[in-house]
Amino acid sequence: MLLRSALFTCILVLCFLLTCTSARQFHLEAAMYTTGSTSDRLPFWTGAHRDGLFNERHPWSGFISLYGTTPLTLGSFDFEAGAQVFLRQGKDTKASFNQFYVSAGYGSLLIYAGFTSNPQLHEKSMFIRLGGDLPVRAYGGLIHYVLFGGTTPGLGRNPGGFPDFWKVFFFGAGGDDSVIYEQEFALGDHVGAWDFGLDFDISGNRLWLYKQFVIETKKNLLFNAAQDGLYGLAYFRENPDHWWSSLLWEFVYTKNQNGPWWAEDPDRPPGKSGQMNYYNHYLYRTGWTYHGRTIGSPLLYPRLEGGIKDQNRIANNRILAHHLGIEGRPHPGLYYKAMFTYSRNYGTYRERDLAEERGEEYFFTGGPEQVSVLFEAEYRLPGRHNLVLLTSLGLDLGSVFPDRGGMLVGLRWVPR
Known about the structure:
The protein is mainly beta. It has a domain at 1-115 and 390-416. It is 11% helix and 46% strand. A 16-stranded antiparallel beta sheet has the order 5-4-3-2-1-22-21-20-19-18-13-12-11-10-7-6. The protein starts with a helix and ends with a strand.
């Protein structure tokens, strides 16, 4: 019955997209995957950044996915609609929309809309780029996401009307109908980043340096906790058909969080207040997670058992991590990428303090180390069937996750 419903949904989505445009403009992909692991969970990078297709808690599963997009141009206006549906077969059999969106553009202005439920989500980004055709270019901008509105048990409905949207848009404080903390600070649960970088043209190749400063509260707009964030260096060859076409190094540091103590605690040293508790929130208690997965950097992750402890869903948001990546095309039709991540993990300030007060042992004391590795390859099969074979191997070694290996094998079809 579930498979029949999933196939029926796929047909409806295809019909909707096909009616929006001609078959020549329509883009369609279909894929089948299977996953497995030596443990009761998939390795970290095997499950992360897969758009929620795979359930890390049920590693032995099979998947069918169908994805379609269609553009439409009316004068100076550009529109696009897209959808993805999938069927997952295993212990957690499920058929669902994974993506469903529309976008509209006019010139350089782009508006994108998805579908969210209670609470509401606001997102925006604004960038300035300087340098034009010069060999050195600079950019800077703001990335901003906010959860607001919705209903909190024991407190009732949170402000979520149109006037509240403008408060959220400009990091404004809440009104009398909001809880006291939001009246003092900002309405809603804010996350984002100041994003700055330099882009160098080196004989047609590209060198990219960048830094993202964390935004969790309104204070971060003034670069409080400036050492926290993402530091990056990437190099891209002009010709992608090389055994290595791009290299990446990133460093993530989120330990500071504007200090280890609560701002209102008179017994703590001055100038050390903060505990921003990245991706957690006292009203939106699941934090920046969806179905147990982090919305944002997967290196800041929820507790593995999926629960909420002391109002924290994200169990580890103080980390130091190095990430290396390489990709290339060593042979026509063959693509690969490899990733290596080393991290030290310190949990959260809040739970560290609570464990100390209760005389309990804290798992993240001392910063347990973790290594996660992924190697993935795609090979376009000979012939006119437009089939691509995908294989992936993942490995976890360390003190946070159990030592484990995992695999993914799939077949993707693109009509043209």
